[in-house]
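Can't attach files on this board, so I'm pasting raw text. These are the components:
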Amino acid sequence: MCRSAPPSRSRRSTPFRTLTGGLGGLSGSGEGHAPAAGKMAPGSAKEKNGTRESSSNVSVHNPHLDSMKNDILYHFNLGTATHDLPAMFGDVKFVCVGGSPWRMKAFVQYIAGELGLADPKEDFPNMCVGTDRYAMYKVGPVLSVSHGMGIPSIAIMLHELIKLLYHARCTDVTVVRIGTSGGIGLNPGTVVITKQSVDATFLPRFEQVILGKTVVRGTDLDGDLAEELLQCGKDLDSFETIIGNTMCTMDFYEGQARLDGAFCSYTEEDKQSYLREAYAAGVRNIEMESSVFAAMCNLSGLRAAVVCVTLLDRQKGDQLTSSHDVMQSYQQRPQMLVGHFIKKRMGCPALERGCCKQ
Amino acid sequence: MCRSAPPSRSRRSTPFRTLTGGLGGLSGSGEGHAPAAGKMAPGSAKEKNGTRESSSNVSVHNPHLDSMKNDILYHFNLGTATHDLPAMFGDVKFVCVGGSPWRMKAFVQYIAGELGLADPKEDFPNMCVGTDRYAMYKVGPVLSVSHGMGIPSIAIMLHELIKLLYHARCTDVTVVRIGTSGGIGLNPGTVVITKQSVDATFLPRFEQVILGKTVVRGTDLDGDLAEELLQCGKDLDSFETIIGNTMCTMDFYEGQARLDGAFCSYTEEDKQSYLREAYAAGVRNIEMESSVFAAMCNLSGLRAAVVCVTLLDRQKGDQLTSSHDVMQSYQQRPQMLVGHFIKKRMGCPALERGCCKQ
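---
Top answer:
Structure tokens for the assembled complex are below.
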């Protein structure tokens, strides 16, 4: 069921790495359309100059794709018959995704400047021309894509992003979600790198409904990548950065125990009790996309991380009352951290000389 | 638990109407934080000039709101302390919501022209200044708001919209979602007015997680309003319009049995079987927002309808292959239908003379 990228004459052999799970098992009675476990090819690694070099493709798990003459990535307004995806995206190594189109444009401008690839004041064109569903920007090996708010919105984007990377024959891609969140027991402005994404009952799982049946998928994220990002936070030494669990909810108000929605049937005490339970389960922040992001990146063999800043401490309030400038500075922190990470990964000479902007 | 709009010296007495349900009961064991049923005030009606006149407020169900000095509607970038919401929005009688910001801007331009309230070529300002989460436009009594894709995204918007209408002391508001969808057994371009919004197992319910517990809410929509909209379709006689059930899913690809996502573990036969089951349950189209829309409008006493055009027949394919122009013309149909409805409701003199644009 697993498909690596289609062969290309100009491409070196890059079998994809072994994944740890398939498409997930049906929960409940097990009746109905049980999804087949993805058949994974073994990982590959080769020695080069004494160091272990491995490369991994982006995997899709869909036998139907091979028979499609054209694959229209509808919400990106891109397609295999209308766009030369390998030429446009084949060199992508880092994909940064976030809710807001404005923030993802700001990120590409920031990273362009940090990597010295373009003038950060340049008006980067949105590659999703003719649609307002998502916005996409690219500079060098970095792709920056917006995903809107909530699991369904990011899931649509990820289906099309994974297919895009597959069609473009990308290898060794790292995907990072940079976002905002509510914190628990943390100073506002703390950056949380997600260890596990947990649901509203604090379990590390994502429930995907397929043909009316629920399939449970895991939501672990890459531990090594999380540690690497934590080290980047230490390098920068500009704000607090921690690793913790992230609760992913379906709703911003009732789903996150806020007292300020249009509907609220619980007390302040109920709210505090729930947040204490979450904290005891290792939850340090709450957002709305990480579970399906982790599940889908796992399935497609993408190394993935979630890096979110906390805008407030939910134990102290619900409303976002900080000034616009403070909010803006908080929102730049995940960008700074991931920018530093990309520079390190790319072996930025300026960074090695200690003269790169941090 | 239910709050009608705050009193105003300049405002006539308008007690809100009786709702049919509270915040929903907990499913499962009933342990934990059972939400209290909303306490509803009885509906009111008074005779005036021999006709029965009734008016209804927009209800919130949150006792905490009264103690807040400022209510920041964060994702709209509006607030009670920073904006005079009654002055800005107090005259709103129709709210149209849809996924795409561009489409909602196009709608306000269209309705401005239809109602003769402004030049449709005017560049209406986005009232959500300084944020890109949602876009909001207003002309006369019509508010047009985008909601992004998926249940969580529209739910955030609706929490803040309901509070906005409440703070603005609006009365007798009708809310219509105008959107796009996949059809089942219908010619592409057919407009479906939703009778019931059903989940992926074809049940008319929406599951809201509150403090980690699942609360089930009903998803019926206003039957009289649906019939009134159907009549508008007949008046226009420009495209096929029907009333049917709408399936609301959490995902566009696997959740809707598409064969063209990054992951697909089922066969074409499985897909067709699932769509046949859906059709047998009265489902005529599939989208991603109607269930929480119906549930939240029910709770707040808003008359609500969902009017979506079908872009394709899902029994015949999954990809959206029609030309840009055809897609555009389809997407205008819900706008035309709702535009006609608003004109009728407002007793548009031009419409009565038979010379209003249709």
